[in-house]
């Protein structure tokens, strides 16, 4: 029996030279906030996505929470996305911005101008949780769980 090499990207049409890929594994960022941040920048141009993420860090724009909106407070800035729930998830925004910077540097290396790229595919997957233990009063021990995530992003040249 011959073992096949497992494809690490779910986006299969990435072999063409007009695509640029980047991925990050085992990030200590919550899955739900990363999914909503990815949905917010999906389809944007790279320069607009980076500006949007910078505005989110400065609380000038918010990340709309549409799918995982349970327990999320209302935000007036979410009206532009036709929803009321929104937040400013800094860890998710910083990790997504670093991934976009990595993808644009991959574009420079491939000879593609990053100004012409837009985000055509983003996938966020939950990673296995990292479990530790914390010691409590009266000899008790509680779990201390870290939630990890994987991200992969594909940038495409505008046609």
UniProtKB/TrEMBL annotation:
GO terms for cellular component: cytosolic large ribosomal subunit. Keywords: Ribonucleoprotein, Ribosomal protein. It holds the Pfam family Ribosomal_L22. GO terms for biological process: cytoplasmic translation. The keyword Ribonucleoprotein applies. It comes from the Eukaryota. The keyword Ribosomal protein applies. One of its GO terms (molecular function) is structural constituent of ribosome. NCBIfam families: uL22_arch_euk. Belongs to the universal ribosomal protein uL22 family. PANTHER family: 60S RIBOSOMAL PROTEIN L17. This is Large ribosomal subunit protein uL22.
């Amino acid at each position: 029996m011959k073992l096949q090499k497992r494809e690490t990207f779910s986006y299969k049409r990435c072999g063409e030279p007009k695509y640029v890929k980047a991925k990050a594994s085992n990030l200590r960022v919550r899955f739900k906030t990363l999914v909503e941040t990815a949905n917010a920048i999906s389809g944007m141009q790279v320069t607009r996505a980076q500006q949007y993420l910078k505005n989110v860090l400065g609380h000038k724009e918010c990340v709309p929470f549409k799918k995982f909106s349970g327990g999320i407070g209302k935000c007036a800035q979410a009206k532009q996305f036709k929803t009321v729930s929104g937040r400013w998830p800094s860890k998710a925004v910083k990790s997504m911005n670093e991934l976009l910077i990595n993808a644009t540097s991959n574009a420079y290396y491939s000879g593609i101008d990053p100004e012409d790229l837009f985000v055509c595919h983003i996938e966020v997957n939950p990673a296995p949780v990292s479990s530790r233990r914390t010691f409590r009063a009266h000899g008790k021990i509680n779990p201390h769980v870290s939630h990890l995530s994987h991200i992969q992003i594909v940038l495409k040249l505008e046609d």
